[in-house]
Amino acid sequence: xxxQRTIKTLTQAVGVGLHSGQRVELTLRPAxxxxxxxxxxxxxxxPVDIHINALSVTDTRLASxxxxxxxxxxxxxxxxxxxxxxxxxxxxxxxxxxxxxILDGSASSFVFLLQSAGIELQKAPKKFxxxxxxxxxxEGQGENVKWxxxxxxxxxxxxxxxxxxxxxxxxxxxxVVFDMGRDVYARDIARARTxxxxxxxxxxxxxxxxxxxxxxxxxxxxDYKVLNSDGLRYDDEFVKHKILDAMxxxxxxxxxxxxxxxAFRSGHAMNNQLIRALLAQPDAYEIVSFEDVKxxxxxxALPVRAW
Length: 307
Description:
Elements: E1 3-7, E2 11-16, E3 23-30, E4 37-41, E5 48-51, E6 57-59, E7 65-68, E8 71-73, H1 77-86, E9 91-95, H2 108-117, E10 119-125, E11 128-131, E12 135-139, E13 146-151, E14 156-161, H3 167-170, E15 175-179, H4 185-188, E16 195-197, H5 198-206, E17 219-221, H6 237-251, E18 257-264, H7 268-279, E19 285-288
Parallel strand pairs: 4-9, 11-18, 14-18, 16-17
Antiparallel strand pairs: 1-10, 2-3, 3-9, 4-5, 6-7, 7-8, 11-19, 12-13, 13-18, 14-15
Helix pairs in contact: 1-2, 1-6, 6-7
């Protein structure tokens, strides 16, 4: 049986929110089978559980925000991406503020936390969403077009293309294909950092955003070049971060995909529109498990691979 996964022991991290600048503590806890991933706002007078699912996303400006009633958690995508990359099905995340800490701006710190806690196989079959027919969302026309789609595929593959018209970005790789059956998430995707432009930072901060951002947790560019003294971690770090984000945004659906995802200039909003569009077409997907591990797509049956 291809089993569900949680972590063996609790693990903790402290950081600041990218947009809020607030200090925040995270405690990642093991969770029983079929719990899914749950964010728990433990700083509130009455702690509130927010179960991740496509409809729990209530804001996609600059990040993915999930809510339950008045309780919110911003910027969940990097932690969700790490869970997707390591195949974590069940996890309780205690959080002491309304934004996940940005840490180094990538998913690598979350990968380290999860792997340090250890991965526990559970006595229940892992459930997948297998896409049966193509679902696509699209906006704009001509130079303003952007789109994302899910298609049938025996595995999990993501392909992303960016188009920023910026010298520092244009000199790097613009398109990446990542396949769970061939590549290693922790090595190939997890270290890609979020990025931004100095001209936007002033505007964001005047609106109370990006208060925790800086060169230690983001790639920052002026009109011509990357300002970080250590440069890029990957030759194509910009587009790899978009893959990282997409993996987190898509995993908010609550189960791993057996599908191919392809996108051009997509973002948090479009990624959420895509999983909602899929769920709105019950004949476009099915929920499957694998009693025989050998019948599972390549990459899913392997133990969690380290760096």
